[in-house]
Structures are given as C-alpha cells and as structure tokens.
From TrEMBL:
<keyword id="KW-0732">Signal</keyword>
<dbReference type="Pfam" id="PF01632">
    <property type="entry name" value="Ribosomal_L35p"/>
</dbReference>
<protein>
    <recommendedName>
        <fullName>50S ribosomal protein L35</fullName>
    </recommendedName>
</protein>
<keyword id="KW-0689">Ribosomal protein</keyword>
<dbReference type="InterPro" id="IPR001706">
    <property type="entry name" value="Ribosomal_bL35"/>
</dbReference>
<comment type="similarity">
    <text>Belongs to the bacterial ribosomal protein bL35 family.</text>
</comment>
<dbReference type="InterPro" id="IPR037229">
    <property type="entry name" value="Ribosomal_bL35_sf"/>
</dbReference>
<dbReference type="InterPro" id="IPR018265">
    <property type="entry name" value="Ribosomal_bL35_CS"/>
</dbReference>
<feature type="signal peptide">
    <location>
        <begin position="1"/>
        <end position="21"/>
    </location>
</feature>
<dbReference type="GO" id="GO:0006412">
    <property type="term" value="P:translation"/>
</dbReference>
<dbReference type="InterPro" id="IPR021137">
    <property type="entry name" value="Ribosomal_bL35-like"/>
</dbReference>
<dbReference type="GO" id="GO:0003735">
    <property type="term" value="F:structural constituent of ribosome"/>
</dbReference>
<keyword id="KW-0687">Ribonucleoprotein</keyword>
<dbReference type="GO" id="GO:0022625">
    <property type="term" value="C:cytosolic large ribosomal subunit"/>
</dbReference>
Length: 126
C-alpha cells in the first residue's frame, strides 16, 4: 500500500514517525488505508533524505571570506581598516614622505563598506 500513496502522504507519515509520541485517529473511509502503512519510514527513504538535506542546509554555519579577512581589520566601532596600495615594489623612486604615508592604515570607502561587511559577516553598527 505504501507504493500507491502520494508523496505528500508519505511526507506526512514520515513527519509523524519522527515524533516521539503522537495520536492518530482518522475519520472516514481512509482509516483502513492509513492503518495498513508500516511506520516508521526508514531514514534512508527518499522522503527522509530530502528532509534531512534541507534541515542540514538551514543549520549550516556561516563562513566569512578568508581573502577579505586577511586584508581588513574590524575596529570596535564596526569600521574597516585597510592598507594603502603601492608599497610592494618600485620603492626606490618614491619619496620618503610617500612611503611614510603608505605605511599608515586607512578606512574603507563608504561606497563599498556594506559589501566588505557582508563578506566578513560584520553587522553594521548604528
């Protein structure tokens, strides 16, 4: 009888089978059809595996972008600090004042701040 049941009925029965205790009191002519189904469904059944996959997907741990985490520092107020570009090579021709200014850290641009905060899983502070 289980093969002739609709997928919705199988889903309902699998949810009932996963409960610790339940009361099943059907009314009408379909009472005999439900009583002939073997409960519980095995965890390897197609209905249960799709339910388990959806449950695991909902509980996945959020991961920050490791590339962004290596390039930015989050302050206690929620701002993002970054290094200035242009200090990797060809330093001989740059003035000492320019090199000193490149050693400092600066804040991220406000236009891209929301993008970087979402990559780092930082909630913007108000």
């Amino acid at each position: 009888k289980k093969d002739s049941m609709s997928p919705l009925a199988l889903l309902f029965l699998s949810l009932l089978a996963s409960c610790q205790a339940f009361v099943l009191a059907p009314a009408g002519p379909s009472a005999s059809a439900i009583s002939q189904v073997a409960l519980p469904l095995s965890p390897a059944s197609p209905v249960m595996t799709s339910i388990n996959k959806k449950a695991k997907a909902a509980c996945r741990k959020a991961k920050s972008s490791r590339a962004a985490a290596k390039r930015f520092k989050v302050t206690s107020t929620g701002k993002l600090l970054r290094h200035y570009a242009g200090k990797a090579h060809l330093l001989r021709k740059k003035r000492p004042q320019k090199l000193a200014s490149l050693r400092r850290t600066g804040q991220c641009d406000k236009a891209e701040l929301a993008t970087y905060q979402s990559l780092l899983l930082v909630k913007p502070k108000k």
